[in-house]
Design brief:
mainly alpha; single chain; about 180 residues
Length: about 180
């Protein structure tokens, strides 16, 4: 049976966990805002430069050359931006996962301890019921560990796919820029 002190300690721990998660979420949002402000400032400066360059174009050949020179950097910047967003989201998610794993491990320990204490004080003849509860707990813990491993593998696959798509997009833009430069020349 839980005492009042144990309940208060559990509630205090839950409140601390909530504030910890909220803090991590705000850190992620702050990083996204900083990234977006940096991108907006950079884009504004580059747009001004591009407009000036476009206004100084004398013929179609120069215009095609200007377009070709802008294509590749834009794709690379978009890929870098996507990568930054992915990194921020991954880091924030990792913090949440780490905290959740810690909470689950703590809950598993407490539940196991509770079952062990109950088994020690169980009346004679309930050994089968206690064994059944322990077996169910072991199965649940194994299932959780399997899900955890599968989630980590899925994350690794998603990251590899993200990197492959990003690299493919950058290479495609590089090829398109080269083709545009050849056409302009």
């Amino acid at each position: 049976m839980l005492t009042a002190e144990q309940l208060i300690a559990a509630h205090k721990a839950n409140v601390e966990t909530l504030f910890g998660l909220t803090s991590k979420a705000f850190e992620g949002v702050e990083k996204l805002i900083e990234l977006n402000l940096q991108v907006a400032k950079t884009a504004l400066g580059e747009t001004a430069e591009t407009v000036q360059a476009a206004l100084s174009v004398k013929d179609a050949q120069e215009l095609l050359s200007l377009q070709a020179s802008l294509l590749q950097p834009s794709a690379e910047k978009a890929a870098a931006y996507s990568r930054h967003i992915y990194d921020i989201a991954s880091a924030t998610s990792a913090e949440f996962t780490k905290l959740a794993e810690s909470q689950i491990a703590d809950a598993q320990k407490k539940t196991s301890s509770l079952v062990d204490n109950a088994a020690k004080n169980a009346p004679a003849g309930t050994e089968n019921a206690v064994a059944l509860v322990k077996s169910a707990m072991a199965a649940a813990n194994n299932a959780y560990e399997s899900l955890q491993k599968a989630a980590k593998q899925a994350t690794e696959v998603a990251e590899a796919n993200f990197n492959a798509v990003t690299n493919t997009a950058v290479k495609a833009s590089q090829n398109a820029a080269r083709s545009a430069k050849r056409t302009a020349a």
